[in-house]
Hints:
49% helix
Amino acid sequence: MANVIDITGLPPERVVFTPSPLAELGAALHALSEPGHHPGLHGWVTATNAALKTDLADRLCEADILWRSSRSDILLPARPGATLAEDLDELDKIGDERFVAAAFEITCSPRYTRPTPSPLVDAGERARIREMAAARGPRQAAFTDRMLTDPDGLRVWLRRLFEDCEEAFFGDIWRRVGIQLAADARHKTELLRRKGLAETLSATSRALWLEDAPDRSGNGNSNSSGSGSGSGSTRIVLDKLAQGRTTAFADPADPGVTFLPTSFGWPHLVFAHAQGWRPVLQYPVASPELPAPAALELVQQRLEALGHPMRMQLCRTLSRGPHSTGELAEAFGITSPEVSRHIATLKKAGLIQTRRRGRYVLHQLDLQVVARLGSDFLEGVLR
């Protein structure tokens, strides 16, 4: 599974790295509502929630359908401003039908990749939105009804909510992290200019890479470091447990791809790619305490390797120290070729280390890799 952005023919200058105050506020609000996703932020979440005035906390609870389980498209601007007010001014320019449709783009369902009518004009879509909101709670259902019946009034209410967040806690946050995010965006922009998109994506996240898809004649190279050649297509691939396809020309009036750095986002790699909207990707900035994510395919391979009962027994023995194939065969009453096949599977998954001692080949469980498996799995499903 992966998300793909076709960038064939896109000029390099249309790939933009820039911070967004509104996107960072959205990431902070998500962390406040789902602290279990962000164990490194527990101290900040506890202190911030405790300091919120009751009225503001209640209003955030009412509107959290926009950021709790997934991030609403309105919180990921393709052309961010320098301040939260500028981002909100741009939101105000969007017509009601498009604004409401974007506001409720909050799921990872296959519907997201298809054009859907605005719930303001389509009864079926309106019923679907109301049903989705009702499942999340009565306050969220009431918020949704207000958005559908009085979009102008609720847009004013929502802007005031974000402005109150800025006054209560986000203004201080942005003054602190905005400098870091701007520096990261400048670094990525310079890296893009000097080294190209493939290396820039690699520096942005190990879950991103550039791929040159072959043309129909079978030509083309995979995982190219360039920007594509020949008649094949060039794509940005996002290693996520979801499938989606879009193009950098989804918005003909504003082609390109926007990358938004975030200091609150890890482990999420948020991708907005609704029909007719410029693709936007919010990525967590590098931090020494954050482990590098494992590829989802490798996580799945490791889980499958451990799914066999005999391999689990072998791992128990190999966790205690190095053993030869002969030792393992004798200990478990199976043949050496059977042991070798199980060892090969575990080794291919990167779960064991092998070294030679004289005429013996010894195998041992890599405890650090196994210890990381749980967090790799969690990071993968939250990405």
